[in-house]
């Protein structure tokens, strides 16, 4: 699903793809409700007042309800104790109306994010961040898959079809994007390299990539002359910068430079970002189906 070419590269329209995916999820939800009388439910927990997180959580609630699912929002003050947050997660784990649980990141500094994430029932861990889901993904077993990498994989499959044998370079080694992205690409039989800020000759390595995934969190770090002609570039970065007296959102890739060389590229905004929430809804429907032993709709999981 592409829109017009720009400087040679096709622009991958993540916004349109995400909208189609949400419609598919809504159809699956309607079917579950009609056939079984069950409405999938997603609980989102926000601790503190981080402005970007507040926007993401609001959007998650809106899109959850638009898909016909139940949305449970828990907004806690920044000074909430970790024990109180763990007690809430315990209640959500036991609640039969809740099929997915998500704790919005980042958490305040006094909390141990790993301990919080690992307190979520892995079957309800629709973020796919629990250590059990990370292990299942790493060993090629059925897992809940982190939303952003899952969205990237869907865009890549839609663009390229079979990914087998392609050279993929993932720049970034976070648990949320870089590592699961690499596992997913490996699962699709790519030859995968995980690179990072300390990789030697990063530019040269990127030039060998048929698929380049940038998830490093540095504005426009990947330059046009790092891109192999015809490559598919997936830009996960969302960086707010000041430029010409205005605040702008830019990716980890120098879009203009890369679009002159690449075969296809995701824009920022409108590329990977919208896929994150669409895949969260898909994971919630998947979790509900798995919890009840019902078949999962096609095309929602990895
Ligand atoms: N528990 C989680 N926390 C965070 C996650 C996550 O997947 N799980 N990811 C990010 C934030 N995030 C969702 O939570 C998210 C980020 C960006 C977008 C998005 O649609 N971006 C738009 C631009 C939006 C803007 O103008 O700011 C785009 O790229 O087009 C959706 C969700 C960190 N925390």
UniProtKB/TrEMBL annotation:
Pathway assignment: One-carbon metabolism; tetrahydrofolate interconversion
GO MF annotation: an example: methenyltetrahydrofolate cyclohydrolase activity
All residue ranges annotated as the Tetrahydrofolate dehydrogenase/cyclohydrolase catalytic domain in the record: 12-127
Keyword set includes Phosphoprotein: no
Gene: folD
Documented EC number(s): 1.5.1.5, 3.5.4.9
GO biological process, one term: methionine biosynthetic process
Signal peptide range: none
The protein, known as: Bifunctional protein FolD
Species assigned in the record: Paracoccus siganidrum
Family matches, as PROSITE patterns: THF_DHG_CYH_1 (PS00766), THF_DHG_CYH_2 (PS00767)
Pfam families: THF_DHG_CYH, THF_DHG_CYH_C
Quaternary state and interactors: Homodimer.
Cellular component terms (Gene Ontology): cytosol
Entry-linked InterPro entries: Aminoacid_DH-like_N_sf, NAD(P)-bd_dom_sf, THF_DH/CycHdrlase, THF_DH/CycHdrlase_cat_dom, THF_DH/CycHdrlase_CS, THF_DH/CycHdrlase_NAD-bd_dom
Keyword NADP: yes
Positions bound to NADP(+): 172-174, 238
Catalytic reaction(s) noted: (6R)-5,10-methenyltetrahydrofolate + H2O = (6R)-10-formyltetrahydrofolate + H(+); (6R)-5,10-methylene-5,6,7,8-tetrahydrofolate + NADP(+) = (6R)-5,10-methenyltetrahydrofolate + NADPH
Similarity-based family: Belongs to the tetrahydrofolate dehydrogenase/cyclohydrolase family.
Purpose of the protein: Catalyzes the oxidation of 5,10-methylenetetrahydrofolate to 5,10-methenyltetrahydrofolate and then the hydrolysis of 5,10-methenyltetrahydrofolate to 10-formyltetrahydrofolate.
Residue span, Tetrahydrofolate dehydrogenase/cyclohydrolase NAD(P)-binding domain: 146-290
Annotated CDD domains: NAD_bind_m-THF_DH_Cyclohyd
Keywords per UniProt: Amino-acid biosynthesis, Histidine biosynthesis, Hydrolase, Methionine biosynthesis, Multifunctional enzyme, NADP, One-carbon metabolism, Oxidoreductase, Purine biosynthesis
């Amino acid at each position: 699903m592409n829109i017009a070419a720009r400087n040679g590269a096709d622009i991958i329209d993540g916004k349109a793809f995400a909208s189609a995916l949400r419609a598919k999820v809504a159809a699956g939800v309607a079917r579950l409700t009609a056939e079984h009388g069950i409405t999938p439910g997603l609980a989102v927990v926000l601790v503190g007042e981080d402005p970007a997180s507040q926007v993401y959580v609001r959007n998650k609630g809106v899109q959850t309800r638009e898909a016909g699912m139940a949305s449970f929002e828990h907004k806690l003050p920044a000074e909430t104790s970790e024990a109180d947050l763990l007690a809430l997660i315990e209640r959500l784990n036991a609640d039969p109306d809740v099929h997915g649980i998500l704790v919005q990141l980042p958490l305040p500094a006094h909390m141990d994010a790993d301990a919080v994430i690992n307190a979520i029932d892995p079957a309800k861990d629709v973020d796919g961040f629990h250590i059990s889901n990370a292990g299942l993904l790493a060993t090629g077993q059925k897992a809940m898959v982190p939303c952003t990498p899952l969205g990237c994989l869907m865009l890549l499959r839609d663009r390229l079809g079979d990914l087998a044998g392609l050279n993929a370079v993932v720049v970034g080694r976070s648990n949320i994007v870089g590592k699961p992205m690499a596992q997913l690409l490996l699962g699709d039989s790519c030859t995968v390299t995980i690179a990072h800020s300390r990789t030697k000759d990063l530019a040269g390595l990127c030039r060998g990539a048929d698929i380049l995934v940038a998830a490093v969190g540095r504005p426009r770090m990947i330059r046009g002359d790092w891109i192999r002609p015809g490559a598919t570039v997936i830009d996960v970065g969302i960086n707010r910068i000041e430029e010409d007296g205005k605040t702008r959102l830019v990716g980890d890739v120098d879009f203009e430079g890369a679009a002159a060389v690449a075969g296809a590229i995701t824009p920022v905004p409108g590329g990977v970002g919208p896929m994150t929430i669409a895949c969260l809804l898909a994971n919630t429907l998947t979790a509900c189906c798995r919890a009840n032993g019902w078949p999962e709709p096609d095309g929602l999981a990895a």
